[in-house]
Amino acid sequence: MRNVKDLVQKINKLKKEKNAIVLGHCYQNIEIDEVADYVGDSLQLSRLASQTEADIIVFAGVYFMAETAKILSPNKKVLLPKIDSGCRMADMIDLNQLKDFKAMYPNLPVVCYVNSSADVKSEADICCTSANAVQIVQSLNVPKILFAPDKYLGTYVANQLPNTEVVTYPGYCPTHLNILVEDVEKMKKQYPNAKVLAHPECQQAVTNLADYIGSTTGIMKYAKESQEKEFIIVTEKGVVDRLNRDCTDKKFYLVSNKAVCPNMKKNTLDDILYVLETEENEIIINEEIAKRARQSIEKMIAINV
Ligand code: SF4
């Protein structure tokens, strides 16, 4: 039978021996937190990892996150526990599709959500996260931009900036799109005192029902700092699992049991142990691509939001 305690011990021992760290995205199965040195959202984790002296980074997340860690830590070995854990949104656009999109709207700056491949980042002018997308677009101070790959985050940005035209690529997150207006309305009826906290990857009809719209980190911070006691969480299940664990005096309800990212749930402790033992599933990025992708990320970081 699977012995979690034993797995945790073996992983921690190997981490020490190999000077490795484990990053855990907050959509991961909650057992991953047992061995994670840092838990958070994708860019925050990659930035933290780049500031450490670790030789090996194990990224318990999806492929683009491990790529982002590698882009920011080119001299570290980055391992992805399950190599086929891709982000279904990031996989909706590749380099050629972005080039075709740009060709349809020549001379417009491209803002690229970090949920995208290294190739796509390398062809963008600047990256953004769900937390800073509005400020990044605003900082460009231009009347029109291209936004890829998430059309819902792009639409959210456009609604916040009425003087900027945002042309969105037709990508989306299938997990967040699974969340329907009916799901939110049903939960609001069931928990009339609960505040609704939603991620901007949801469709606009859903975010229209929210008391707060923000990134994963933003939602968790809001919920922890709020004086309210009940919350309907309109994003991936891992956020609810962690909030229920960390804030036992409050109640958090997942908006729908369809709000689960199957690829985020692929990584297990067994996989983390395996890649630490074998050092398989290493992320390799072409140097020129990595350099250009890093420039897009660094431009965003320089704006300091
Ligand atoms: S929840 Fe959506 S955006 Fe996040 S990793 Fe899964 S598919 Fe990608």
Brief descriptors of the model:
305 residues; Rossmann fold; 3 domains; four-stranded parallel beta sheet; 12 strands; 43% helix; 16% strand; binds iron/sulfur cluster
Structure overview:
The chain has helices spanning 4-18, 42-50, 63-72, 95-104, 118-122, 133-140, 151-160, 174-177, 181-190, 204-207, 216-225, 237-246, 269-278, 287-303; strands at residues 20-25, 38-40, 56-60, 77-79, 110-113, 126-128, 144-148, 165-168, 195-198, 212-213, 230-234, 251-254. By secondary structure, the protein is an alpha/beta fold. It has a 4-stranded parallel β-sheet with strand order 2-1-3-4, with helices on both faces. A 4-stranded parallel β-sheet has the order 6-5-7-8, sandwiched between helices. The longest helix is centred in the C-terminal third of the chain and has 17 residues, at 287-303. The model has no long low-confidence stretch (mean pLDDT 97). The protein binds iron/sulfur cluster (SF4). The site of iron/sulfur cluster has 12 residues, from loops.
